[in-house]
Known about the structure:
Mean pLDDT: 88
Helix content: 25-40%
CATH architecture of the largest domain: 3-Layer(aba) Sandwich
Shape: globular
Bound molecules: calcium ion
Strand order of the largest sheet: 6-7-5-9-11-12-13
Distance between the termini: 16 Å
Amino acid sequence: xxxxxxxxxxxxxxxxxxxxxxxxxxxxxxxxxxxxxxxxxxxxxxxxxxxxxxxxxxxxxxxxxxxxxxxxxxxxxxxxxxxxxxxxxxxxxxxxxxxxxxxxxxxxxxxxxxxxxxxxxxxxxxxxxxxxxxxxxxxxxxxxxxxxxxxxxxxxxxxxxxxxxxxxxxxxxxxxxxxxxxxxxxxxxxxxxxxxxxxxxxxxxxxxxxxxxxxxxxxxxxxxxxxxxxxxxxxxxxxxxxxxxxxxxxxxxxxxxxxxxxxxxxxxxxxxxxxxxxxxxxxxxxxxxxxxxxxxxxxxxxxxxxxxxxxxxxxxxxxxxxxxxxxxxxxxxxxxxxxxxxxxxxxxxxxxxxxxxxxxxxxxxxxxxxxxxxxxxxxxxxxxxxxxxxxxxxxxxxxxxxxxxxxxxxxxxxxxxxxxxxxxxxxxxxxxxxxxxxxxxxxxxxxxxxxxxxxxxxxxxxxxxxxxx
Length: 469
Ligand code: CA
C-alpha cells in the first residue's frame, strides 16, 4: 500500500510539472513571433505542419464551430469521434483541422477563441528503438533469464523461472500493440495472433461489428486507414515488440516471449514517417472500444506503447484516461534520449493516469542503458532493453521473386524494455483471471528487484521480476 500511495503522490506532482510546462510553452508562443522559433527549438517537438487538434466546448453549435475555424482559415480535415468517446458522453469528439497558418500560430489564435476548450499540435511520434546492435547477434535471450536459471544472466526478467513453474500464459488474455504493424504470420507469432471476434469469419467488406472499421480482423492500420496491419519488412519494430511480449515458447524455434500463450492485436499507427497524435488517439480508443462493447467484448489487459515524442496532449491524455476507466494498462517506453523525465517530461510515458507504467531500459550487466531516459518520480521500473533478440519480418529473394519470411534480430531501446513489462502483465493476468489493471500494476511494481543502477532513477528503484508473482 505504501508504494501505491507514493505512486499517487508522485503522479500528482508529474501532472503539475507537465501542466506548467505546456502552459509555459504556449505562453511563449503567444508572446510574439520571434518566440515561436525559440520555443520550437527549445521543445524540439516534431509536429504535422499546418494542422492542429481542436476541441470545442460541448454547447458550441456546428455553425459557431465553422465561424470560429474561419478565424484561423481552418478546415475540418477529420472529425475524430470514437465509440470510446461517445460512451463517455463526449458529444463532439475532437477535430483535426488544416490551416494555411503555421501550426503553432494557429494554435495560439484558436486558444484565444471563447468557443474552444483546447487546441494543440498534431505531434509526430517515433518508435523508441535504437539501431540494430551488432554486438548481440548471437541469439542470447539474456532478458528472459534470471539468477535461478542463469547466473551469468542474472539481470534478466526471470521469465525462465515463471515458465519452469508452468506459468506460460493464457489464450483468453489479449494485448494491444500500438506501434507499427506486426507480422502475424511469423512462424513464432502465428499461434498467438489474436483476431477480433466481431469480424473474424464474418462478411468481407462489411463492418460486421459496427466499430467503424471494415474487416478489422487482426486490428486496424490507422496510418494507412485500412485493415492490412502488416505491410512488409518496414513493420520490423512492431514485429520485434510482438515477439518479446508473446513469441511462441517451447516450439523449438526462434525466440520465446515473456508470455508464451497470449493473443496479440494490432493498432498500427506508426508509418514510415512516424505516427501522429490524431492517429494515436484513435489507436488507444480502438482497444478501449473492443473491450467495453456489449457484443463480442475482447479481454484487452494492456496496450504496449514503444513510442514517444511530442509534448503534452490533452486529447491523447483523455484517450489514455478512457483506457484506464476500461481497465486497460498503458505500458510505455521512457524514451531513448538518456535524459531525466522528471526535469523534462516525456510522453506518452509521462501522462499522469493511473494505468500508465513507464519503463526504462537496462543492460545485461544490470546497468541503466546509456540511451535510457529515467525519472525518480516519472518512470516506474527498468527491464531488459539492450541487445534484445526477437522476431522480425525478413526478405528473401528466390528466383527473382522477393518473399517475406520469418526472421530474428537484435534491437536495443526502451522500445524493447517495454514489451517485457507488457508480457509480464499478460502473464500475471493469465494466472489471476479478472485481476484489475491496478492490481496487475501493483504486482509488477511491488515485485521489482532493487537494482543499484536504478536507485533514485525510477519509482521502484528496481527491475522487472516476472518470477515475483
Ligand atoms: Ca469492424
